[in-house]
């Protein structure tokens, strides 16, 4: 019998080194999350997976599972905070779903719908973020970037190219590419790179395959993200460790 | 015994910086409109051609705010409607018209009415009856208090039906994840 912790009052088993989020997903229990990806080291930046442990809150993707932890996740307080985080992301970028090629495959959109977000609520920033269409095969639409760093992690850890990085701080933080010109065409990115696959929103798009799958027949059109995420999660206890 | 019919719920609708697609979605309720009409009557709406909104229970507003007239109409709706609803992506987020927000308004007008290649002798429209455009397009909640939001481009007829029937039954409207679409 492995150790267990309590998630919303129910026991969840875990293996040493697993995070609370990894153990929950492996046990078929969904905790909303956005910047976490089962194939990458947890990043802990979007805070959507925040849970309550006693009087503290913590991002469950970077919180090591420990025997006897009492974790609250599916409660009004946490879900209200998650909705606010998603609303702020929608207000900060230019997320115009009706014309976005990623609509239906977008994690931010799917998360918003699943959490019942009906409006960004805040005053929209409408920032000016020109697209980078310089590369013959890949389009970069910075308007939709949520700074999750998944492309940064994929390009460095898997592709070993480090094409992407985040630059600037606070509200000025933005995605950049590793070329003196600042243009994607002048990097060594390739269509087969992991970094091209991993964007949860509509920033990194392959050219000439847009809308090949019609709206209405896409990933999150068929199943809500809360069900899809459980299908995607490794069900064995031996996931990537939090403490690498 | 009195046989008074219960008072009908009075609804006003309008399209501001919208395309009337959300109104088409309202009509797409199809035969359920007959059931709806047993409980509601319409004030100002493109269906009645009434020009100004009187006291109403529900105001359904499509489209964002892109010019001075939009602001006047929206404020008239807010003054007169007990419940104001932002219907569709443009009312909720600014939508398609807001795609000009990162451009200079004068540049936009110049490009569309003067520089555009298909125009022989273009000019920026200056009729005094035309409402002045705002420098940015705004969603409704940046101008008045909005009580409910129906996202979608447009929200489906089923979404509008679920919302209205919840509201008419006195329930807090609840759209499940399957009826919440942003596209």
Question: What do you see in this structure?
Answer:
The complex is a heterodimer of chains A (244) and B (183). Chain A has 244 residues and is an alpha+beta fold. Chain A has seven helices and nine strands. The longest helix of chain A has 17 residues, at 76-92. Residues 237-244 of chain A have low confidence and may be disordered. Chain B has a five-stranded parallel sheet with strand order 2-1-3-5-7, with helices on both faces. Chain B has six helices and seven strands; from the N terminus they run βααβββαβααββα. Chain B is an alpha/beta fold and 183 residues long. Chain B has a single domain, classed as 3-Layer(aba) Sandwich (Rossmann fold). The radius of gyration of chain B is 18 Å and the shape is elongated. The A-B interface holds A 90, 94-100, 103-104, 109, 112-114, 116-121, 123-124, 126-129, 215, 224 and B 86, 89, 92-96, 98-99, 101-102, 136, 138-139, 141-142, 146, 148-151, 153, 175, 177-178, 180-183.
Entry summary:
Chain A is of the alpha+beta class and 244 residues long.
Ordered list of secondary-structure elements with their pairings:
The complex is a heterodimer of chains A (244) and B (183).
Chain A: E1 4-7, E2 10-13, H1 20-26, E3 50-53, E4 56-59, E5 70-72, H2 76-92, H3 107-115, E6 138-140, H4 150-158, E7 164-167, E8 174-177, H5 194-197, E9 204-206, H6 219-222, H7 225-232
Parallel strand pairs in A: 1-5
Antiparallel strand pairs in A: 1-2, 3-4, 3-5, 6-9, 7-8
Helix pairs in contact in A: 2-3
Chain B: E1 9-15, H1 21-27, H2 32-37, E2 40-42, E3 56-62, E4 65-67, H3 68-80, E5 81-87, H4 89-93, H5 105-115, E6 133-138, E7 148-150, H6 157-168
Parallel strand pairs in B: 1-2, 1-3, 3-5, 5-7
Antiparallel strand pairs in B: 4-6
């Amino acid at each position: 019998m492995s150790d267990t912790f309590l998630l919303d009052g129910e026991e969840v088993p875990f293996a040493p080194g697993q995070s609370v989020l990894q153990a929950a997903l492996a046990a078929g229990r969904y905790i909303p999350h956005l910047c976490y990806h089962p194939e990458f080291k947890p990043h802990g930046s979007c805070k959507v997976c925040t849970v309550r442990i006693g009087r503290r809150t913590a991002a469950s993707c970077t919180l090591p599972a420990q025997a006897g932890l009492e974790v609250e996740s599916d409660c009004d307080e946490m879900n209200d905070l998650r909705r606010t985080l998603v609303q702020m992301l929608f207000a900060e970028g230019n997320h115009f779903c009706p014309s976005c090629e990623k609509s239906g495959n977008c994690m931010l959109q799917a998360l918003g719908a699943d959490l019942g977000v009906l409006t960004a609520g805040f005053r929209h920033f409408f920032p000016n973020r020109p697209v980078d269409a310089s590369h013959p095969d890949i389009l970069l639409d910075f308007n939709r970037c949520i700074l999750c760093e998944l492309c940064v992690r994929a390009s460095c850890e898997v592709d070993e190219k480090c094409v992407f990085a985040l630059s600037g701080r606070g509200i000025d933080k933005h995605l950049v590419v590793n070329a003196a010109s600042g243009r994607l065409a002048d990097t060594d990115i390739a269509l087969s790179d992991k970094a091209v696959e991993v964007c949860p929103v509509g920033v990194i798009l392959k050219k000439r395959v847009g809308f090949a799958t019609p709206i209405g027949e896409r990933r999150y059109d068929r199943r809500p993200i809360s069900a899809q995420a459980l299908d995607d999660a490794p069900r064995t206890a031996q996931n990537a460790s939090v403490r690498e | 015994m009195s046989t008074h019919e219960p008072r009908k719920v009075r609804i006003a609708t309008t399209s501001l910086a919208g395309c009337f697609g959300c109104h088409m979605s309202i009509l797409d309720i199809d035969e359920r409109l007959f059931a709806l009409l047993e409980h509601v009557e319409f004030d100002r709406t493109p269906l009645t051609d009434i020009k100004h909104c009187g006291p109403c229970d529900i105001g359904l507003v499509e489209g964002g705010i892109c010019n001075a007239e939009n602001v006047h109409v929206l404020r008239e709706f807010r003054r007169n409607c007990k419940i104001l609803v932002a219907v569709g992506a443009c009312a909720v987020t600014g939508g398609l018209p807001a795609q000009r927000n990162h451009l200079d308004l004068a540049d936009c007008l110049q490009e569309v009415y003067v520089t555009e290649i298909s125009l022989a002798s273009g000019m920026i429209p200056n009729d005094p009856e035309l409402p002045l455009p705002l420098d940015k397009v705004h969603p409704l909640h940046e101008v008045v208090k909005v009580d409910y939001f129906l996202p979608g481009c447009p929200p489906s007829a089923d979404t509008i039906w679920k919302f209205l029937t919840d509201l008419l039954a006195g329930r807090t409207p609840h759209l499940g994840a399957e009826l919440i679409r942003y596209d």
